[in-house]
């Protein structure tokens, strides 16, 4: 997997990435998701994905050029789907506090259960961890940008003081990532109700910090 700059991170592009309507490309990406989920990135080749998709190797290369590009396209699509689901889950909630609480619950549940994101953390943690830790600057920046924009819009809608919500957004993202990477804790976070109680007690008060 290749690194990207802060302005060109996978998550930043996923926010604006429309899902392809091209039938063969969708079929290849579906096959890639299944292949990477079962065998990981190292043990998967373009030939493996082509066989699973029922297309020729040439067809896969014609659309994605390289394994790096295919992995990136797969991550982009899943990232885009994640943000769409997160937006849908919190859109109807009336207050910023409720959206923060439910957004934390949905993000934690989705990432842990996702066959690719959660699966790669289990199958190949040494491949994934650098992109969430020492090489995680671009992803952190993009996710904080996303949450900051939501918090700022909620501030305006609720008439809250116009303080910069970015530090609060960063704290929330860092907390969520830490629980994703190492769920072992004295804080019980095994189900949605426990995650909701944690977010309501510890994250929601940050909005008034």
TrEMBL record:
<dbReference type="InterPro" id="IPR050109">
    <property type="entry name" value="HTH-type_TetR-like_transc_reg"/>
</dbReference>
<protein>
    <submittedName>
        <fullName>TetR/AcrR family transcriptional regulator</fullName>
    </submittedName>
</protein>
<feature type="DNA-binding region" description="H-T-H motif">
    <location>
        <begin position="45"/>
        <end position="64"/>
    </location>
</feature>
<dbReference type="Pfam" id="PF18556">
    <property type="entry name" value="TetR_C_35"/>
</dbReference>
<keyword id="KW-0238">DNA-binding</keyword>
<dbReference type="Pfam" id="PF00440">
    <property type="entry name" value="TetR_N"/>
</dbReference>
<dbReference type="InterPro" id="IPR001647">
    <property type="entry name" value="HTH_TetR"/>
</dbReference>
<dbReference type="InterPro" id="IPR009057">
    <property type="entry name" value="Homeodomain-like_sf"/>
</dbReference>
<dbReference type="InterPro" id="IPR040611">
    <property type="entry name" value="AlkX_C"/>
</dbReference>
<feature type="domain" description="HTH tetR-type">
    <location>
        <begin position="22"/>
        <end position="82"/>
    </location>
</feature>
